[in-house]
Amino acid sequence: MTIIGWSTRNWRHRRQAIEWCRDYALTGITRDTYVGGLYPRERTELETRLRALFSQKTEKVFLVTMCRSCFNSSMAHRSLIQDVTIEPDFEILQMSRIFPKISSKL
What we know:
CATH architecture: 2-Layer Sandwich
CATH class: Alpha Beta
Oligomer: single chain
Helix content: 25-40%
Number of domains: 1
Strand order of the largest sheet: 2-3-1-4
């Protein structure tokens, strides 16, 4: 599980960060804090993007990674734990074609 939060006064940066978090299917806790399960590659990509976005002097961003059992036993409200999207432990990488290519001369 990954918890991501930021502090900014720039509403454009906030809106962009929210959009990126939603792209990764993270669940919003507050308007500036999101939580969800990410693969290590996804976590690295999102962290790089957020650190580049929140690079001004008054902006801050943090990422916290914890295992699912620690998150489930934490003091988080039970409804929050149920709302968090947990991705399956597998991923479809490529799907083969089922039907042959249809000729346009039919």
